[in-house]
Amino acid sequence: MSLQDALTNEERLAELDVDALKQLVGLVEYDAGSDPFPVTGWDAAVWAVGNATQSAHFYQSAFGMELVAYSGPETGNRDHVSYVLKSGAVRFVLNGGVHPDSPVIAHHAKHGDGLTDIALEVPDVDACIEHARAQGATVLVEPHDESDEHGTVRLGAVAAYGDTRHTLVDRSRYDGPYLPGYVARTSSYRKRAGAPKRVFQALDHIVGNVELGRMNEWVDFYNRVMGFTNMAEFIGDDIATDYSALMSKVVANGNHRVKFPLNEPAVGKKKSQIDEYLEFYDGPGAQHLALATNDILRTVDALVEEGVEFLATPDSYYEDPELRVRIGEVRVPIEELQKRGILVDRDEDGYLLQIFTKPIGDRPTVFFEFIERHGSLGFGKGNFKALFEAIEREQEKRGNF
Ligand SMILES: [Fe+2]
User: Fold this and answer.
1) Separation of 289 CA from ligand 1 center, angstroms?
2) Do 202-398 and 9-184 have the same topology in CATH?
3) In sequence order, what DSSP letters do the residues of 249-291 get, joined into one string?
4) C-alpha of residue 288 to centroid of ligand 1, in Å
5) CA-CA distances (angstroms) from residue 390 to 74, 82, 311, 312, 362?
């Protein structure tokens, strides 16, 4: 199968092509024929939130996403409301409990706003589930068809870290707005004059935080069960500040669309940001979602305009002569990055620009990254220290450091 054929429907609808995806998310060619668990790409990031009706407004107004589908009591779903939003190839599904016994409410009570499901598009759900089961994974949902007037989807699900799951979706025989049970829905919300058409185009990676001592177990899970390969490894001084440390490894699917950095806390003098997450999320879960943009200056300006708050980067970061030498020439003047607090990192393949929001919910847990890649397939290793020091300043304000 050529790369062009392997574009997801969402990518085609978003008018992305292979070259754009190589640049945006580091897409690579690979032979799916020898992959025991072929994954085409992301299907959806599915959230449990405290108030999906209001979150749907936030992701439209602040993140520039577009409402495309809905399920709820009006469509026969008595348990919860569900809003489906898109930006480029990115799909978010926001679930909020309606009935007091809803599992969405239980998930939210335990974890706060967070990801319940990192759903992946696969060409063969049955083959993936069979392979996963043979490798000892917990199969949460057996492969089955769901149909409506738009066609048929085949679905199955396996358990991942904590209460997170991976639903596997084959939507090749379906052309509805999301899944059977959902109806198309648009919104009366209108973007401000001059706002960009899209603030971000694609999902780059989702980071999972797991318990102390269990990172390698989860790396092994993604290697063995899902056929992912290891991309990079950060241990020790690379990502330690004077006070806290973590360990991180990155796994990716064959074409590198789906990248999962996995963190575990490492012993430091004070409570690390991973420890803080694990305490307030009450266990392992998704820590941040990195959203790819091809114009991070415009993205950040649009988000700031709508009140989204980012971690501050100290001026000393930009004035450091070592940094200036390390990063060399980038496409924008460093002053423009400094004005917005955008971080820059370079490796042997190129460079990347990145910035991190403050936590988006009430708990100090889930946040977003925005990333603009220029050849680099990394994750901003050179920025980890500066970033963690910024997070520690926020932790200190919260009394969790
Ligand atoms: Fe990241």
Assistant:
1) 7
2) yes
3) EEEE-TTSSSEEEEEEEE--SS--HHHHHHHHTTS-EEEEEEE
4) 7
5) 45, 34, 6, 7, 19
Q: Ligand 1 centre and the CA of 252: distance in Å?
A: 13
d(C-alpha 191, C-alpha 61), whole Å: 7
For the chain, the structural domain boundaries read 9-184, 202-398
Ramachandran angles phi, psi of 247, nearest 5°: -120, 145
Q: Which residue has the higher pLDDT, 380 or 386?
A: 380
**What's the CA-to-centroid distance between 213 and ligand 1, angstroms?**
21
For the chain, helix (H) and strand (E) counts, in that order, are: 12, 17
Distance CA 8, CA 88 (A): 11
How many angstroms does the Cα of residue 379 sit away from the middle of ligand 1? 6
Taken in order 377, 381, 382, 388, is the CA torsion positive or negative? positive
Task: Looking at the structure, give the CATH architecture of the domain made up of residues 9-184.
Answer: Roll (3.10)
Range name among 8-17, 287-296, 379-388 with the lowest pLDDT average:
379-388
Please give all residues whose CB falls under 5 A of ion ligand 1, grouped by chain where several chains appear. Answer: 290, 369
- Fold of the CATH domain 202-398: 2,3-Dihydroxybiphenyl 1,2-Dioxygenase; domain 1 (3.10.180)
Query: Could you tell me which residue, 271 or 73, shows the higher pLDDT?
Result: 73
Kindly give the distance from the C-alpha atom of residue 372 to the centroid of ligand 1, in angstroms, as a whole number.
11
E strand or H helix that includes residue 102: none
Check if the beta carbon of residue 176 is closer than 8 Å to that of residue 182. yes
Q: What are 71-118's pLDDT values in tens digits?
A: 999 999 999 999 999 999 999 999 999 999 999 999 999 999 999 999
169 and 155 in contact (C-beta within 8 Å)? yes
Note whether 201 and 90 are within 8 A (CB).
yes
DSSP 8-state assignment for residue 383: G
Q: What is the pTM of this model?
A: 0.94
- Span from the CA of 356 to the centroid of ligand 1 (angstroms): 8
pLDDT confidence bin for 328, thresholds 50/70/90: confident
pLDDT digits over 133-175, tens only?
Answer: 999 999 999 999 999 999 999 999 999 999 999 999 999 999 9
Q: How far is the CA of 61 from the centre of ligand 1 (A)?
A: 23
324 CA to middle of ligand 1, Å? Answer: 22
| 166 three-class SS | strand
